[in-house]
Specification:
Blueprint: H1 3-10, E1 14-15, H2 24-28, H3 44-57, E2 61-65, H4 68-83, E3 87-90, H5 95-98, H6 103-108, E4 111-114, H7 124-128, E5 136-140, H8 153-165, E6 169-174, H9 177-184, H10 188-192, E7 197-201, E8 212-216, H11 218-230, H12 239-252, H13 256-270, E9 276-279, E10 287-292, H14 296-310, E11 312-313, E12 319-320, E13 327-332, H15 335-338, H16 342-352
Parallel strand pairs: 1-11, 3-4, 3-5, 5-6, 6-7
Antiparallel strand pairs: 2-8, 7-8, 9-10, 10-13, 12-13
Length: about 350
């Protein structure tokens, strides 16, 4: 952590991305003071959240877990054990492969099989090239590291059918399912109906405390609950995260179409700026990536200037790319972004890109 950077962020009155900087007071305010508490995950607001998520997804049951990493490893282990198979197929940019330290292999004895091209969406032809019978196919909606891209609905149906035709489970990495539903113009239940199991996050697009739910058939979810306990996820009280999730789910899920409309308005406002590329263009969900033809050092200096002179917090730094003269930033659209007009966003992006 950089104390100077933290102070600079806290001094800003506006923010460009998502719901704005994470502040303890804001998160605590999402926990009603009369929240009914659980005991080791049983009862209270945890049960209320699980029931509401299962209803939204039209799946028989849901279990609350403290992290998506735990949720997805648990359910994939269950799918693999039931089928007597070890292979899990996923896109090369999957969280399972990039951010979990090979936990599928090292903790669960499963075999991850990245399939397709890392720089484009998974295609049915990529899957039909897989000869071995997998335990599960994992599809992330939207594909976060590709800027929030979504496969066409017909492609999604064909890919989940490919899994089922081979006796494999179709599992939804729905860390941003709420955003994907806006992009498809479909309800969470319509999207989840294509899958055997689904994971949904509450801290990303919804801005709640950390935590997630894993939904699916009653017997599968029951096994996931056992793995939650084995992996140390059944805390004495899970109620703070669950209460925050319920508040933010009810508050922000209805706003997803507005976030998407604003993401597209932002793309329109910045796409003609010199040295700026919108990915994807137009946005397919309430998020987008911006490729900026500038250096990391120049970007950081411009971001600091916007914070100091205009009270606008953008990003502390940009991600590097294969081109040393191009950086990448991710722009999730949320409450804070809605408070900025497309013209204001354009001016900020122009400054960040050195325009």
């Amino acid at each position: 952590m950089d104390p100077d950077l933290d102070a600079l962020r806290d001094g800003c009155s506006r923010a460009l991305a998502g719901h704005g900087p994470t502040r303890a007071a804001d998160l605590l305010a999402t926990i009603p003071p009369d929240t009914p508490v659980d005991r080791y995950g049983d009862g209270g607001v945890v049960a209320e959240l699980e029931s509401e998520v299962a209803g939204l997804l039209a799946l028989p049951a849901a279990a609350y877990l403290p992290s998506g990493t735990m949720a997805q490893q648990s359910v994939l282990r269950v799918h693999a054990a039931r089928r007597g198979r070890r292979t899990v197929v996923f896109h090369p940019q999957s969280h399972l492969d990039r951010h979990e330290g090979r936990a599928l292999e090292r903790l669960h004895g499963l075999v991850g099989r990245p399939t397709g091209d890392r720089d484009r969406l998974l295609a049915l032809d990529d899957l039909t090239a897989v000869a071995e019978l997998p335990a599960a196919l994992v599809l992330e909606l939207p594909q976060r590291d590709l800027g929030g891209q979504l496969p066409a609905w017909d492609d999604l149906q064909a890919q989940t059918a490919w899994a089922r035709d081979r006796g494999a489970a179709a599992h939804l990495d729905g860390a941003r399912l709420w955003e994907a539903c806006a992009g498809y113009g479909r309800s969470p239940a319509e999207v989840a109906a294509l899958f055997d199991t689904a994971y949904v996050s509450f801290y990303k697009g919804l801005g709640a405390l950390a935590g997630c739910c894993l939904a699916g058939p009653q017997d599968v979810v029951a096994e996931v609950r056992e793995w939650r306990s084995r992996m140390g996820g059944t805390l004495f009280g899970l109620w703070p995260g669950a209460a925050s999730a319920l508040t933010c789910l009810r508050r922000r899920l209805p706003r997803m179409p507005a976030y998407l409309d604003h993401a597209r308005a932002v793309a329109t406002a910045v796409r003609d700026l010199p040295g700026v590329t919108v990915v994807p263009d137009p946005p397919q969900a309430p998020m987008l990536h911006l490729l900026l033809r500038t250096t990391s050092e120049a970007f950081t200096a411009a971001a600091r200037s916007l914070a100091e002179q205009e009270g606008l917090w953008t990003w502390p730094r940009a991600a590097t790319t294969g081109d040393p003269g191009v950086v990448r930033v991710e722009l999730p659209v949320g409450d804070a972004t809605l408070e900025l007009s497309p013209t204001e966003v354009r001016a900020a992006v122009r400054a960040l890109s050195g325009g």
